[in-house]
């Protein structure tokens, strides 16, 4: 054959050969490629057929199963479903028991899932005696004992489901028998401390508290400055309370962490547990947890700042920008995920802080954070706005060097005041921004025209239920669209509109034209006397005591044109004639 | 008498352009002239018009002459004079000397520009000839009135001045004693200290004319005096904590926010009213043109009381807790409230919600002040920062400074000086000019008081700053703070009682309705577009067709095969495209905003509109103006560029 004898001579040919070799293409024998050969050898015909049959069977089975499931789903009998559900639950429980014996870690995971399902149940409105069945039973319950019982059962179920579980701590306590006592010793201590002073173990808060009281006392003093009063009010109202909450929460977390270390619980269970304790302790919904956790974070930051200002840990400073960067990002995340993640993260952070770990840990933390940045990339646009707002409020402005520095501060304990200010600054910031953004979002939502849904009363028998969404027309862009720190009310001021012109006068076709003619004021307040007089001259001036004859062309200053001349000429003879006639008549009479 | 009758007619003012017209047009005859003409002629009375015309037709020139004569003799016309001045022959004086500056004095364009109110940056859609003529008339009127107003600037004899340090001397180091030593006795008397240590920190207020001063101490001391002559009008103790004090429209009435309720006293110290609907008031503001007393209360309500009729116009729930930071925008009478969450909200009695909300600080807002032109707002917060915001639509901070202890009180003077009270020290900053914001780099003046500051206000029309503090009241001299020229009809410091009463009546007649308060005070000069559109739509619905719609274009039939279907379609398409293009140009999205405009503060020529600082306007109103600083910078940059580039031979022609 030709190719057998063929040999590459030119560089081009050589290259082509090289390529063919590389891709295992047949150079000499053009029938089958090595890959093809390999595949041929890999599976015989029978084998392939069997495999195909197997696949077919699997597919068929799957479709059977699906069909069955569909059929079962369509069954309307409630009893049947109840039985099925119960059966499933039992089975699951059994499996779980087995799993616990065999593989405790997996069992824990499973437990978590169950817990989550329970939580979902709790959050849903099921078993609240609000269903159709429950309502009917409630009516019947007056007369029917059975119905009453059923209702009570239902209520009990509801109670059981909605009960707030103390499971986590209990389970933990169960696991470590010996540690229990230690914990008991530990916990009351902390609790007592809390009760002793509401501000918690944070020495800063102690100070601020005392200083507050001090200043409240000094208020009575007549010579004292009255100015800080207002701020103190806001302070005591606005900040102290959350601060106390934070402290309590913080302690709880710490507590939990120590427990965890001892009981050697796996880390995965921790967030759930903490959440439960949170539920039990402060009776707040999940979304609120986020707020608190953020505050905690701020608290953290402030602590770090303090550390850095003291100059003990220079590395911390390096870490700060990272956290600051992250904050806006956190705001963007879906709530639930964030809370869990953040809690975990936060816990770790604090752990590290407590242990006073230095650089490598911090770096690790940073590396932990970096992946957080990635998923937010598509949201960059929104993020920019946020950051803009942050910049707006946080930019370091140069401080004024004034010759006279207020001396008032000397009267007070300056250090205390500084502390207070620092705390204020630490806690004031992000809360304000987030609240404002939220408010703005709400305002924007409220001002948006609403979509309407419309369900036609007529529909094809058996056909799908049609529902149409009538999209509201997009309004003009908001004035504050690009101003992150501003909410401008877009509502129409109807009181002012009542005074405005609402009909265009005749020669104008566009309101801009008309507006231009009414923009100059004509009142004497805005004009000089001469200008005012001129602007307000009447078009027609009449003089009393004079007869006003009909106007003629000559009167206005036009010399009568040729045509009017003609008319005059034509008219005049007539008049002359009439006059003549009159005269004639008169004369004749005479 | 003759002059009284002759109101100037616009038609006559225009000097006839063409001889033809002049010959064709003669002076309009008035009905009352007919009697006079014959009498001068000595002709017989009666209804002579027709007859005379008929009779006089051959001798028309004579008639015209007579008429002209009568006009000149009877009605010396104002606009004719300048024309006469222009030819040098006629204005030769007795001495034979010529006027070296013939004609009316030139008016500086910038001054005229100040009075122009028509926004010419907005291009109008194509208009009919009739509309165009109306527009031209409006523009001509505006120009004329603004020129007249600019001319009258000559009457503003006083000029403002500032303290200027000798080369490199810091004006902030100059203390009050030095200033008092340097100025004349009358001015030196304006600096005084009232040592009132007994009744606690004082709030104070000057009356609108700047002649009277009222102050109220925390511990119930209320006094009003003519501070120039130091004549005490009244002094009482209300036996209750006084939160704020304010003059109403004149110095005869005084509103005092006491611990419980709002009280109104007259200048004898007699209690006239106790307004129980305004309780626990912390701050007061008086809107002079609307006769409204705005009160901010501890309960979180902003209440507007109309003091002319004694009715509460609006009580707005601010929903932001205790209100104790308030100021008014003198430009549009909008009330600015500062809140503990770092926002400043803008309120009008016509709206239940704030007109705008601005996030200013990370901590709570401690003080707010707005300058007299309504352009800048200064805020200070718990975060120790002092910021100056631009209020013309953008609400962005122009400059920010961190003060060592934060400012608790702020105030603007009439000429744009900013004062901040920090503890027992007041700092004053000055701007470059009147229209520029105060630059916070260097304080203009500083002063230390005997106690912490509790109230600040610049005295109108005087270079005086009043400071209320825990040690009493101090009146300090701040050169360049007050407007040097006052309007004698509006707020005359030297007015007599009769004049005040006269003014009161006039002011009441000119009272602005409360509901007209909105962010843009010139909203009345705009058409209510929404109602207009609505009305149009309803009309179309009612009639079943649009009466204003243009008939669709129907091409005329043409011959010789030019009227083929294809060419017809082509012609139609052409017309359609043309219209579309025009429409797009006028009504295109965002075009009115993007219309090139230069509302900057630089003295650019109005006619050329070719200014280096063309910033696209963000709205139809006067939205974005460039700050002078930026503009100057740009100019500098441009200059630097031009100098930095390779020099070319043509450069010498470029300025």
UniProtKB/TrEMBL annotation, chain A:
This is UTP14A small subunit processome component. The keyword NAD does not apply. One of its GO terms (biological process) is rRNA processing. One of its GO terms (cellular component) is small-subunit processome. The lineage of its organism: Eukaryota, Metazoa, Chordata, Craniata, Vertebrata. Residues 572-590 have a biased composition (Basic residues). Residues 364-373, 560-570 have a biased composition (Polar residues). Residues 164-385, 560-590 are annotated as: Disordered. Keywords: Nucleus, Phosphoprotein. It is found in: Nucleus, Nucleolus. Pfam families: Utp14 (PF04615). Residues 228-265, 333-358 have a biased composition (Basic and acidic residues). Belongs to the UTP14 family. Its main location: nucleus. The keyword Phosphoprotein applies.
Automatic annotation (TrEMBL), chain B:
One of its GO terms (biological process) is maturation of SSU-rRNA from tricistronic rRNA transcript (SSU-rRNA, 5.8S rRNA, LSU-rRNA). Scaffold component of the nucleolar structure. Required for localization of DDX21 and NCL to the granular compartment of the nucleolus. Part of the small subunit (SSU) processome, first precursor of the small eukaryotic ribosomal subunit. During the assembly of the SSU processome in the nucleolus, many ribosome biogenesis factors, an RNA chaperone and ribosomal proteins associate with the nascent pre-rRNA and work in concert to generate RNA folding, modifications, rearrangements and cleavage as well as targeted degradation of pre-ribosomal RNA by the RNA exosome. Residues 59-80 have a biased composition (Basic residues). This is WD repeat-containing protein 46. PROSITE patterns: WD_REPEATS_2 (PS50082). Keywords: Nucleus, Phosphoprotein, Repeat, WD repeat. Its main location: nucleus. Residues 10-22 have a biased composition (Basic and acidic residues). It comes from Macaca fascicularis (Crab-eating macaque). Gene3D superfamilies: YVTN repeat-like/Quinoprotein amine dehydrogenase. The gene is WDR46. Residues 1-106, 543-574, 622-655 are annotated as: Disordered. Residues 443-521 form the BING4 C-terminal domain.
């Amino acid at each position: 054959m030709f190719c057998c004898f063929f040999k590459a001579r030119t560089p081009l040919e050589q290259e082509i050969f090289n390529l063919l070799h590389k891709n295992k293409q047949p150079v000499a024998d053009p029938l089958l490629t090595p890959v093809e050969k390999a595949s041929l050898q890999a599976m015989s015909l029978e084998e392939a057929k069997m495999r195909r049959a197997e696949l077919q069977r699997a597919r068929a089975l799957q479709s059977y199963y699906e069909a069955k499931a569909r059929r079962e789903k369509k069954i309307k009998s409630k009893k049947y479903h109840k039985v099925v559900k119960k059966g499933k639950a039992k089975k699951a429980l059994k499996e779980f028991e087995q799993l616990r014996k065999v593989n405790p870690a997996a069992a824990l995971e499973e437990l978590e899932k169950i817990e989550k399902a329970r939580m979902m149940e709790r959050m849903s409105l099921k078993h609240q005696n609000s269903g159709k069945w429950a309502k009917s039973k409630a009516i019947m319950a007056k007369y029917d004992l059975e119905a009453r019982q059923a209702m009570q059962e239902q209520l009990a179920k509801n109670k059981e489901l909605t009960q707030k579980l103390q499971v986590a701590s209990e389970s933990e306590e169960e696991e470590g028998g010996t540690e229990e006592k230690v914990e008991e010793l530990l916990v009351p201590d902390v609790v007592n401390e809390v009760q002793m002073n509401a501000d918690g173990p944070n020495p800063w808060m102690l100070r601020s508290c005392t200083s507050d009281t001090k200043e409240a006392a000094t208020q009575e003093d007549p010579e004292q400055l009255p100015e800080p009063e207002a701020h103190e009010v806001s302070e005591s109202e606005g900040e102290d309370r959350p601060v106390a909450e934070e402290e309590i929460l913080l302690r709880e977390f710490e507590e939990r962490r120590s427990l965890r270390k001892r009981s050697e619980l796996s880390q995965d269970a921790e967030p759930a547990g903490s959440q439960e304790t949170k539920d039990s302790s402060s009776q707040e919904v999940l979304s609120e947890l986020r707020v608190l956790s953020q505050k905690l974070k701020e608290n953290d930051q402030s602590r770090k700042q303090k550390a850095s200002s003291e100059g003990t840990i220079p590395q911390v400073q390096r870490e700060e920008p990272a956290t600051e960067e992250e904050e806006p990002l956190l705001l963007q995340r879906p709530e639930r995920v964030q809370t869990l993640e953040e809690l975990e993260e936060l816990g770790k952070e604090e752990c590290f802080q407590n242990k006073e770990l230095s650089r490598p840990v911090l770096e690790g933390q940073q590396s932990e954070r970096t992946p957080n940045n990635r998923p937010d990339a598509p949201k960059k646009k929104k993020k920019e706005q946020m950051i803009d707002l942050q910049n707006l409020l946080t930019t370091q402005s140069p401080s004024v060097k004034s010759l006279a520095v207020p001396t008032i501060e000397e009267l007070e304990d300056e250090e205390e005041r500084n502390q207070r200010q620092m705390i204020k600054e630490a806690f004031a910031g992000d809360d304000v921004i987030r609240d404002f953004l939220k408010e703005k979002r709400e305002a924007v939502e409220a001002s948006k025209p609403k979509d309407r849904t419309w369900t036609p009363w007529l529909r094809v028998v058996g056909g799908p239920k049609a529902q149409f969404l009538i999209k509201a027309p997009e309004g003009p862009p908001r004035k504050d669209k690009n101003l992150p720190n501003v909410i401008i009310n877009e509502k129409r001021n109807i009181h002012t509109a009542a005074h405005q012109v609402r009909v265009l006068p005749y020669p104008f076709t566009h309101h801009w034209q008309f507006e231009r003619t009414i923009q100059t004021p004509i009142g004497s307040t805005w004009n000089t006397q001469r200008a005012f007089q001129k602007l307000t001259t009447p078009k027609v001036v009449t003089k009393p005591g004079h007869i006003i004859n009909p106007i003629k062309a000559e009167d206005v200053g036009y010399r009568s044109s040729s045509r009017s001349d003609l008319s005059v000429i034509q008219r005049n003879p007539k008049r002359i004639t009439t006059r003549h006639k009159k005269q004639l008549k008169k004369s004749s009479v005479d | 008498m003759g002059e009284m009758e002759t109101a100037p007619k616009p038609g006559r003012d225009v000097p006839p352009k063409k001889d033809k017209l002049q010959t064709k047009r003669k002076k309009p005859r008035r009905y009352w002239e007919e009697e006079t003409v014959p009498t001068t002629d000595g002709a017989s009375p009666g209804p002579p018009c027709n007859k005379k015309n008929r009779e006089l037709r051959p001798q028309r020139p004579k008639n015209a002459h007579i008429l002209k004569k009568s006009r000149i003799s009877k009605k010396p016309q104002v606009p004719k004079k300048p024309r006469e001045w222009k030819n040098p022959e006629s204005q030769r004086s007795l001495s034979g000397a010529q006027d070296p500056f013939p004609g009316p004095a030139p008016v500086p364009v910038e001054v005229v520009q100040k009075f122009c109110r028509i926004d010419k940056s907005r291009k109008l859609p194509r208009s009919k000839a009739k509309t165009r003529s109306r527009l031209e008339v409006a523009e001509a009127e505006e120009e004329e009135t603004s020129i007249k107003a600019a001319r009258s600037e000559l009457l503003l004899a006083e000029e403002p001045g500032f303290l200027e340090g000798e080369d490199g001397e810091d004006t902030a180091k100059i203390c009050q004693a030095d200033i008092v030593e340097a100025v004349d006795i009358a001015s030196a008397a304006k600096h005084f200290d009232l040592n009132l240590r007994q009744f606690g920190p004082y709030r104070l207020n000057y009356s609108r004319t700047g002649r009277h001063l009222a102050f109220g101490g925390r511990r119930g001391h209320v006094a009003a005096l003519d501070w120039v002559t130091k004549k005490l009008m009244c002094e009482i103790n209300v036996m209750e904590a006084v939160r704020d004090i304010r003059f109403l429209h004149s110095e005869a009435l005084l509103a005092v926010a006491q611990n419980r309720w709002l009280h109104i006293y007259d200048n004898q110290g007699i209690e006239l009213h106790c307004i129980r609907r305004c309780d626990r008031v912390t701050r007061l503001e008086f809107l002079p043109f609307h006769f409204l007393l705005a009160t901010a209360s501890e309960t979180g309500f902003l209440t507007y009381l109309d003091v002319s009729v004694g009715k509460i116009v609006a009580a707005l729930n601010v929903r932001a807790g205790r209100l104790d930071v308030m100021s008014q925008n003198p430009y549009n009478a909008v009330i600015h409230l500062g809140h503990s969450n770092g926002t400043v909200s803008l309120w009008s009695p016509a709206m239940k919600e704030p007109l705008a909300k601005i996030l200013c600080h990370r901590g709570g807002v401690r003080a707010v002040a707005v300058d007299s032109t309504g352009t800048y707002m200064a805020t200070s917060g718990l975060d120790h920062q002092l910021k100056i915001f631009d209020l013309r639509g953008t609400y962005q901070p122009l400059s920010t400074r961190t003060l060592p202890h934060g400012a608790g009180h702020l105030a603007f003077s009439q000429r744009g000086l900013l004062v901040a009270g920090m503890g027992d020290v007041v700092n004053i900053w000055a701007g470059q000019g009147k229209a520029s914001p105060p630059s916070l780099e260097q304080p203009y003046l500083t002063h230390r008081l005997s106690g912490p500051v509790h109230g600040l206000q610049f005295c109108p029309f005087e270079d005086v700053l009043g400071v209320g503090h825990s040690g009493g009241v101090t009146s300090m001299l701040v050169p360049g703070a007050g407007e040097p020229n006052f309007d004698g009809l509006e707020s005359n410091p030297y007015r007599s009682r009769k004049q005040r009463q006269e003014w009161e009546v006039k002011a009441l007649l000119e009272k602005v309705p409360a509901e007209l308060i909105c962010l843009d005070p010139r909203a009345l000069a705009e058409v209510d577009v929404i109602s207009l559109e609505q009305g149009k739509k309803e009309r179309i619905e009612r009639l079943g067709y649009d009466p204003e719609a243009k008939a669709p274009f129907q091409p005329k039939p043409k011959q010789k095969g030019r009227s083929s279907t294809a060419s017809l379609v082509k012609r139609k398409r052409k017309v359609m495209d043309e219209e579309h293009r025009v429409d797009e140009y006028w009504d295109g999205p965002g075009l009115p905003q993007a219309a090139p405009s230069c509302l900057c503060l630089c003295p650019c020529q109005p006619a050329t509109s070719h200014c280096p600082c063309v910033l696209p306007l963000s709205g139809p109103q006067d939205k974005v103006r460039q700050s002078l600083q930026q503009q100057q910078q740009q100019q500098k940059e441009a200059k630097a560029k031009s100098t930095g580039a390779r020099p070319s031979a043509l450069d010498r022609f470029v300025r």
